[in-house]
Design a protein that fits this description.
Elements lengths: L1 H24 L2 E8 L5 E17 L4 E9 L5 E7 L2 E8 L2 E3 L5 E3 L12 E6 L4 E16 L5 E16 L10 E14 L8 E14 L8 E17 L3 E8 L3 E4 L4 E3 L2 E3 L9 E18 L1
Length: about 290
């Protein structure tokens, strides 16, 4: 009898443990997509509190496709067409929506929630894109390769992320702004962004900005670093100038350039079809320049 009681007790403990784990790991997935109809432009406003993120190009005939995995708070997703413009608004944060009529609010303050939320968004390359991305605590990849991006405003709170331009932006970009908060952020092949102006503001962290790619126009970049490390990957084949305003608490490592005060130029400055001009301001940190082919 004692043996049977012991086995029953163990069974109850195992069941209870399983239920607790199941409750802790229970997640829901929401899939959304909209077919491309008359839209010539897509305006995206995304507010994402925390979790994994993947953004890329759609291979289907949809203006956007999204998959949202969440443990507590159902994302609020709205899409409308006004004239020939699509408008996508996504709020994936502390708001919990049980239905269209019932909404409760809550806050996600714990980093333990980070890996319970996942967001995947893919956009068409058949329409021009305006992207306003407000990201909190995120980890992942924003791959903008081969899209038609006219405006991009990207703000990150605490991140470990990569922004990619592996292919040339198919339309000239009018505005391109990135604000990095805390963490690690890498931006690759900015020459493929097809933009005349690029603004980057780094808070506290480690940042890598790669200016390689196929230039379609001159690029003026304004870079501000609060506290941390900034690595610049600059192409040797593009005429490049760096104007550096740094405090005594900052350091700059750069070679293969001509120096005139706080201005540095490579040997191809104003000798190539397109030029790269960088204005850099640094508070407390280290700036390293690496020349690449």
């Amino acid at each position: 009898m004692y043996h049977l009681k012991s086995e029953f007790t163990i069974f109850i403990v195992l069941v209870f443990t399983f239920l607790l784990l199941a409750k802790d790991t229970e997640r829901s997935t929401l899939s959304k997509k909209e077919p491309l109809t008359r839209e010539k432009k897509l305006v995206v406003s995304l507010k994402y509190s925390n979790g994994y993120i993947t953004i890329g190009k759609s291979e289907n005939q949809n203006i956007y496709e999204g998959e949202f995995t969440y443990s507590k708070y159902r994302p609020d997703i709205r899409y409308d067409i006004v004239g020939d413009e699509g408008r996508l608004d996504i709020h994936f944060s502390g708001e919990m929506r049980d239905s269209e009529e019932d909404q409760e609010s809550g806050d996600i303050n714990s980093l333990n929630e980070l890996y319970k939320n996942e967001l995947t968004l893919n956009f068409t390359n058949k329409a021009v894109l305006d992207l306003n991305l407000d990201l909190g605590v995120v980890k992942g990849e924003v791959d903008l390769s081969g899209l038609k991006i006219e405006n991009l405003d990207l703000e990150m709170g605490v991140s470990k992320a990569t922004v990619l331009f592996s292919e040339t932006n198919q339309t000239p970009m009018k505005s391109f702004v990135i604000e990095g908060g805390v963490g690690k952020l890498a931006v690759e092949n900015l020459g493929n962004a097809n933009t005349a102006e690029f603004s980057f503001e780094g808070g506290v962290g480690s940042y890598e900005l790669g200016f390689g790619g196929d230039y379609q126009q001159n690029l003026q970049a304004e870079i501000s670093l609060g506290m941390g490390k900034l690595v610049l990957y600059l192409p040797r084949h593009i005429g490049t100038r760096l104007s550096v305003d740094k405090s005594f608490l900052s350091s700059l490592e750069v070679d293969e350039v001509f120096k005139n005060g706080d201005v540095y130029t490579n040997e191809k400055w104003e000798k190539t079809k397109y030029n790269l001009d960088l204005d850099i301001e640094s508070g407390v940190g280290k700036i390293e320049v690496i020349w690449v082919e």
